[in-house]
Amino acid sequence: MAIVLTHSDVVDLIDRAAVYAAVEQAHIDLSTGAAASPAPSMLPIDGGTVLPMAASARRHRCSAVKMLSDMPFNRDAGHPAQRSTILLMSADTGECEAVIDGRLITAIRTAAASAVATAHLSRTSSTSLGLIGAGTLAVEHTRAIARIRPIDKVFVWSRSTATVDRFRSAVADLDIEVESADSPRQVVSAADVVCTLTPSREPIVQGGWFRAGLHINVVGAPPRADHREVDGAAMAAARVVVDSRSTALAKSGDVVLAIEEGHLTADDVAIELGDVIVEPERGRAQDDEITLFNSVGIGLQDLVTARLLVDAATERGVGMTVELAG
Protein backbone atom coordinates (compact mmCIF):
# COMPACT_ATOMS: atom_id res chain seq x y z
CA MET A 1 0.00 0.00 0.00
CA ALA A 2 1.21 3.51 -0.84
CA ILE A 3 0.35 6.64 1.10
CA VAL A 4 -0.62 9.75 -0.88
CA LEU A 5 0.18 13.00 0.95
CA THR A 6 -1.22 16.26 -0.40
CA HIS A 7 0.18 19.72 0.22
CA SER A 8 -2.28 20.16 3.11
CA ASP A 9 -1.11 16.88 4.64
CA VAL A 10 2.50 18.02 4.42
CA VAL A 11 1.63 21.34 6.11
CA ASP A 12 0.05 19.45 9.01
CA LEU A 13 2.81 16.87 9.40
CA ILE A 14 6.11 18.60 8.79
CA ASP A 15 8.48 19.26 11.71
CA ARG A 16 11.11 21.84 10.75
CA ALA A 17 13.52 20.97 13.56
CA ALA A 18 13.35 17.30 12.59
CA VAL A 19 14.01 18.19 8.95
CA TYR A 20 17.11 20.15 9.98
CA ALA A 21 18.50 17.16 11.87
CA ALA A 22 17.67 14.77 9.03
CA VAL A 23 19.28 17.01 6.38
CA GLU A 24 22.43 17.38 8.48
CA GLN A 25 22.71 13.61 8.86
CA ALA A 26 21.97 13.14 5.15
CA HIS A 27 24.98 15.23 4.19
CA ILE A 28 27.16 13.25 6.57
CA ASP A 29 25.89 10.05 4.93
CA LEU A 30 26.58 11.46 1.46
CA SER A 31 30.13 12.37 2.45
CA THR A 32 30.85 8.98 4.03
CA GLY A 33 29.28 6.93 1.23
CA ALA A 34 26.23 5.72 3.14
CA ALA A 35 23.91 7.51 0.71
CA ALA A 36 23.93 8.39 -2.99
CA SER A 37 22.51 11.41 -4.79
CA PRO A 38 23.80 11.70 -8.37
CA ALA A 39 23.53 14.83 -10.45
CA PRO A 40 20.15 14.89 -12.21
CA SER A 41 19.71 14.77 -15.96
CA MET A 42 17.81 17.64 -17.54
CA LEU A 43 14.90 16.54 -19.74
CA PRO A 44 13.76 19.29 -22.14
CA ILE A 45 10.09 19.76 -22.92
CA ASP A 46 8.30 22.52 -24.81
CA GLY A 47 8.98 25.78 -22.96
CA GLY A 48 10.50 24.16 -19.88
CA THR A 49 12.52 21.35 -18.36
CA VAL A 50 12.01 18.37 -16.07
CA LEU A 51 14.64 17.14 -13.60
CA PRO A 52 14.36 13.68 -12.00
CA MET A 53 16.24 14.14 -8.68
CA ALA A 54 17.05 10.66 -7.39
CA ALA A 55 18.68 9.40 -4.20
CA SER A 56 19.11 6.31 -2.05
CA ALA A 57 19.96 5.95 1.63
CA ARG A 58 20.95 2.78 3.48
CA ARG A 59 20.06 4.37 6.82
CA HIS A 60 16.43 4.81 5.75
CA ARG A 61 16.07 1.61 3.70
CA CYS A 62 14.59 3.49 0.77
CA SER A 63 15.18 5.34 -2.45
CA ALA A 64 13.35 8.37 -3.81
CA VAL A 65 12.93 10.48 -6.88
CA LYS A 66 11.51 13.97 -7.05
CA MET A 67 10.19 14.96 -10.45
CA LEU A 68 10.79 18.68 -10.64
CA SER A 69 9.04 20.53 -13.48
CA ASP A 70 10.49 23.97 -14.25
CA MET A 71 7.93 25.82 -16.37
CA PRO A 72 8.78 29.56 -16.61
CA PHE A 73 5.74 30.21 -18.84
CA ASN A 74 3.46 29.34 -15.91
CA ARG A 75 4.12 32.77 -14.41
CA ASP A 76 2.19 34.42 -17.26
CA ALA A 77 -0.89 32.43 -16.22
CA GLY A 78 -0.42 33.14 -12.54
CA HIS A 79 0.74 29.59 -11.75
CA PRO A 80 3.94 28.45 -9.96
CA ALA A 81 6.97 28.21 -12.23
CA GLN A 82 8.04 25.03 -10.47
CA ARG A 83 6.02 22.01 -9.39
CA SER A 84 7.27 18.77 -7.92
CA THR A 85 6.15 15.34 -6.77
CA ILE A 86 8.18 12.85 -4.72
CA LEU A 87 8.02 9.06 -4.97
CA LEU A 88 9.42 7.12 -2.00
CA MET A 89 10.36 3.49 -2.69
CA SER A 90 11.15 0.70 -0.22
CA ALA A 91 14.66 -0.75 -0.46
CA ASP A 92 13.37 -3.99 1.07
CA THR A 93 10.52 -4.78 -1.33
CA GLY A 94 10.94 -2.29 -4.17
CA GLU A 95 7.34 -1.14 -3.80
CA CYS A 96 6.20 2.47 -3.79
CA GLU A 97 5.67 3.60 -0.20
CA ALA A 98 4.40 7.12 -0.89
CA VAL A 99 3.48 9.79 -3.42
CA ILE A 100 3.96 13.26 -1.92
CA ASP A 101 3.44 16.83 -3.12
CA GLY A 102 6.87 18.46 -3.10
CA ARG A 103 6.13 22.17 -2.83
CA LEU A 104 6.59 22.77 0.90
CA ILE A 105 9.15 19.99 1.26
CA THR A 106 11.40 21.75 -1.24
CA ALA A 107 11.22 25.09 0.58
CA ILE A 108 11.78 23.66 4.06
CA ARG A 109 14.57 21.21 3.19
CA THR A 110 16.32 23.97 1.19
CA ALA A 111 16.20 26.30 4.19
CA ALA A 112 17.35 23.46 6.44
CA ALA A 113 20.41 22.86 4.24
CA SER A 114 21.28 26.57 4.37
CA ALA A 115 20.88 26.52 8.16
CA VAL A 116 23.16 23.48 8.42
CA ALA A 117 25.74 25.29 6.30
CA THR A 118 25.34 28.42 8.42
CA ALA A 119 25.80 26.41 11.62
CA HIS A 120 29.06 24.90 10.36
CA LEU A 121 30.49 27.83 8.38
CA SER A 122 29.36 31.16 9.82
CA ARG A 123 30.85 32.93 12.82
CA THR A 124 29.10 31.84 16.02
CA SER A 125 28.75 35.52 16.92
CA SER A 126 26.57 36.25 13.88
CA THR A 127 23.44 38.18 14.91
CA SER A 128 22.18 39.75 11.66
CA LEU A 129 20.66 38.03 8.66
CA GLY A 130 20.41 39.46 5.16
CA LEU A 131 17.87 38.27 2.61
CA ILE A 132 17.93 39.08 -1.09
CA GLY A 133 14.43 38.04 -2.06
CA ALA A 134 11.44 38.05 0.29
CA GLY A 135 9.19 35.16 -0.76
CA THR A 136 8.50 31.78 0.79
CA LEU A 137 12.18 30.80 0.81
CA ALA A 138 12.99 33.97 2.76
CA VAL A 139 10.42 33.11 5.42
CA GLU A 140 11.71 29.55 5.75
CA HIS A 141 15.35 30.66 5.84
CA THR A 142 14.62 33.16 8.58
CA ARG A 143 12.94 30.51 10.72
CA ALA A 144 15.66 27.93 10.08
CA ILE A 145 18.66 30.18 10.67
CA ALA A 146 17.13 31.87 13.73
CA ARG A 147 17.09 28.45 15.38
CA ILE A 148 20.86 28.02 15.11
CA ARG A 149 22.21 31.58 15.44
CA PRO A 150 21.11 34.42 17.80
CA ILE A 151 19.58 36.50 15.00
CA ASP A 152 18.06 39.75 16.25
CA LYS A 153 17.84 41.73 13.00
CA VAL A 154 16.95 40.88 9.40
CA PHE A 155 17.79 43.11 6.44
CA VAL A 156 15.56 42.21 3.48
CA TRP A 157 15.47 43.41 -0.12
CA SER A 158 12.96 42.66 -2.85
CA ARG A 159 11.89 44.41 -6.01
CA SER A 160 8.35 44.32 -4.62
CA THR A 161 7.36 46.32 -1.55
CA ALA A 162 4.27 44.14 -1.19
CA THR A 163 6.45 41.02 -0.97
CA VAL A 164 8.52 42.59 1.81
CA ASP A 165 5.31 43.49 3.65
CA ARG A 166 4.09 39.88 3.38
CA PHE A 167 7.46 38.65 4.62
CA ARG A 168 7.30 41.00 7.61
CA SER A 169 3.85 39.66 8.54
CA ALA A 170 4.93 36.03 8.09
CA VAL A 171 7.78 36.35 10.63
CA ALA A 172 5.97 38.65 13.05
CA ASP A 173 5.90 35.89 15.68
CA LEU A 174 9.71 35.90 15.87
CA ASP A 175 11.49 38.35 18.17
CA ILE A 176 13.46 39.83 15.28
CA GLU A 177 13.65 43.37 13.92
CA VAL A 178 13.00 43.54 10.16
CA GLU A 179 14.52 46.38 8.13
CA SER A 180 13.77 46.90 4.44
CA ALA A 181 16.95 47.48 2.45
CA ASP A 182 17.25 49.75 -0.57
CA SER A 183 19.50 47.41 -2.57
CA PRO A 184 21.22 44.02 -2.54
CA ARG A 185 24.48 45.83 -1.85
CA GLN A 186 23.04 47.32 1.34
CA VAL A 187 22.02 43.82 2.50
CA VAL A 188 25.50 42.41 1.88
CA SER A 189 27.14 45.40 3.57
CA ALA A 190 25.01 45.14 6.72
CA ALA A 191 24.50 41.44 7.51
CA ASP A 192 26.70 38.77 9.09
CA VAL A 193 24.90 35.99 7.18
CA VAL A 194 23.36 36.59 3.74
CA CYS A 195 21.02 34.36 1.71
CA THR A 196 20.39 35.00 -2.00
CA LEU A 197 16.92 33.68 -2.81
CA THR A 198 16.08 34.88 -6.32
CA PRO A 199 15.62 32.99 -9.61
CA SER A 200 18.19 35.30 -11.16
CA ARG A 201 19.88 34.72 -14.49
CA GLU A 202 22.40 37.54 -14.10
CA PRO A 203 24.47 38.19 -10.96
CA ILE A 204 22.56 40.15 -8.37
CA VAL A 205 25.48 40.16 -5.89
CA GLN A 206 29.09 41.17 -6.57
CA GLY A 207 32.12 39.85 -4.76
CA GLY A 208 33.47 43.38 -4.45
CA TRP A 209 30.77 44.03 -1.84
CA PHE A 210 31.89 41.27 0.53
CA ARG A 211 33.08 42.13 4.04
CA ALA A 212 35.55 40.12 6.10
CA GLY A 213 33.83 37.39 8.09
CA LEU A 214 30.75 37.16 5.88
CA HIS A 215 28.95 33.87 5.32
CA ILE A 216 26.68 33.72 2.27
CA ASN A 217 24.23 31.01 1.20
CA VAL A 218 23.71 31.15 -2.58
CA VAL A 219 20.40 29.40 -3.00
CA GLY A 220 17.84 30.82 -5.38
CA ALA A 221 18.95 30.27 -8.99
CA PRO A 222 17.29 27.29 -10.69
CA PRO A 223 19.45 24.23 -11.48
CA ARG A 224 20.56 25.58 -14.83
CA ALA A 225 24.17 26.21 -15.84
CA ASP A 226 23.28 29.60 -17.37
CA HIS A 227 21.61 31.11 -14.27
CA ARG A 228 23.49 32.60 -11.32
CA GLU A 229 23.03 35.03 -8.43
CA VAL A 230 26.66 35.95 -7.68
CA ASP A 231 29.48 36.93 -10.01
CA GLY A 232 32.74 35.10 -10.55
CA ALA A 233 34.60 37.48 -8.25
CA ALA A 234 32.30 36.45 -5.40
CA MET A 235 33.08 32.78 -5.95
CA ALA A 236 36.82 33.53 -6.09
CA ALA A 237 36.74 35.62 -2.89
CA ALA A 238 35.26 32.89 -0.68
CA ARG A 239 35.90 29.41 0.64
CA VAL A 240 33.32 27.61 -1.50
CA VAL A 241 31.33 24.69 -0.10
CA VAL A 242 28.70 22.88 -2.20
CA ASP A 243 25.87 20.50 -1.38
CA SER A 244 27.08 17.98 -3.99
CA ARG A 245 30.17 18.39 -6.14
CA SER A 246 28.77 16.47 -9.11
CA THR A 247 25.52 18.43 -9.05
CA ALA A 248 27.25 21.80 -8.64
CA LEU A 249 29.63 21.16 -11.56
CA ALA A 250 26.71 20.14 -13.78
CA LYS A 251 23.82 22.38 -12.69
CA SER A 252 25.07 25.43 -10.78
CA GLY A 253 25.50 28.47 -12.99
CA ASP A 254 27.31 30.20 -10.12
CA VAL A 255 29.97 27.48 -10.31
CA VAL A 256 29.98 26.69 -14.03
CA LEU A 257 30.19 30.30 -15.21
CA ALA A 258 32.87 31.20 -12.63
CA ILE A 259 34.96 28.31 -14.00
CA GLU A 260 34.35 29.38 -17.61
CA GLU A 261 35.47 32.93 -16.75
CA GLY A 262 38.63 31.72 -15.03
CA HIS A 263 37.70 32.73 -11.48
CA LEU A 264 37.69 29.09 -10.33
CA THR A 265 38.86 25.70 -11.50
CA ALA A 266 36.93 22.48 -11.05
CA ASP A 267 39.51 21.51 -8.41
CA ASP A 268 38.45 24.55 -6.37
CA VAL A 269 34.99 23.00 -6.04
CA ALA A 270 36.17 20.19 -3.80
CA ILE A 271 34.43 20.64 -0.44
CA GLU A 272 30.92 19.32 0.15
CA LEU A 273 28.76 20.29 3.10
CA GLY A 274 29.06 16.79 4.57
CA ASP A 275 32.86 17.07 4.47
CA VAL A 276 32.73 20.16 6.67
CA ILE A 277 30.43 18.46 9.18
CA VAL A 278 32.65 15.37 9.37
CA GLU A 279 35.93 17.33 9.26
CA PRO A 280 35.33 20.84 10.70
CA GLU A 281 38.88 21.91 9.81
CA ARG A 282 37.77 21.97 6.15
CA GLY A 283 35.32 24.77 6.94
CA ARG A 284 35.91 28.29 8.25
CA ALA A 285 39.57 28.68 9.23
CA GLN A 286 39.36 32.10 10.90
CA ASP A 287 36.82 34.76 11.82
CA ASP A 288 37.70 37.15 8.98
CA GLU A 289 37.42 34.49 6.26
CA ILE A 290 34.54 34.68 3.77
CA THR A 291 32.58 31.45 3.35
CA LEU A 292 30.04 30.64 0.63
CA PHE A 293 27.61 27.73 0.48
CA ASN A 294 26.40 27.07 -3.05
CA SER A 295 23.09 25.22 -2.81
CA VAL A 296 21.63 23.63 -5.91
CA GLY A 297 19.47 21.16 -3.97
CA ILE A 298 19.78 17.38 -4.07
CA GLY A 299 17.36 14.48 -4.09
CA LEU A 300 18.77 13.12 -0.82
CA GLN A 301 17.36 16.14 1.03
CA ASP A 302 13.93 15.30 -0.41
CA LEU A 303 14.31 11.62 0.50
CA VAL A 304 15.02 12.19 4.19
CA THR A 305 12.22 14.74 4.49
CA ALA A 306 9.78 12.40 2.75
CA ARG A 307 10.82 9.59 5.10
CA LEU A 308 10.00 11.76 8.13
CA LEU A 309 6.60 12.63 6.68
CA VAL A 310 5.66 9.06 5.80
CA ASP A 311 6.60 7.83 9.26
CA ALA A 312 4.58 10.63 10.88
CA ALA A 313 1.61 10.01 8.58
CA THR A 314 1.65 6.30 9.37
CA GLU A 315 1.76 6.98 13.11
CA ARG A 316 -1.06 9.54 12.97
CA GLY A 317 -3.24 7.90 10.33
CA VAL A 318 -2.94 10.84 7.92
CA GLY A 319 -3.17 10.58 4.12
CA MET A 320 -4.92 8.39 1.62
CA THR A 321 -3.69 4.83 1.05
CA VAL A 322 -3.77 3.31 -2.40
CA GLU A 323 -3.02 -0.21 -3.60
CA LEU A 324 -1.03 0.61 -6.74
CA ALA A 325 -0.60 -3.06 -7.64
CA GLY A 326 -4.33 -3.77 -7.41
From TrEMBL:
Domain of life (superkingdom): Bacteria
Pfam families named among the record's database cross-references: OCD_Mu_crystall
Gene3D superfamilies from the UniProt entry: NAD(P)-binding Rossmann-like Domain, ornithine cyclodeaminase, domain 1
InterPro entries for the chain: NAD(P)-bd_dom_sf, ODC_Mu_crystall, ODC_N
UniProt protein name: Ornithine cyclodeaminase family protein
Organism this protein belongs to: Gordonia sesuvii
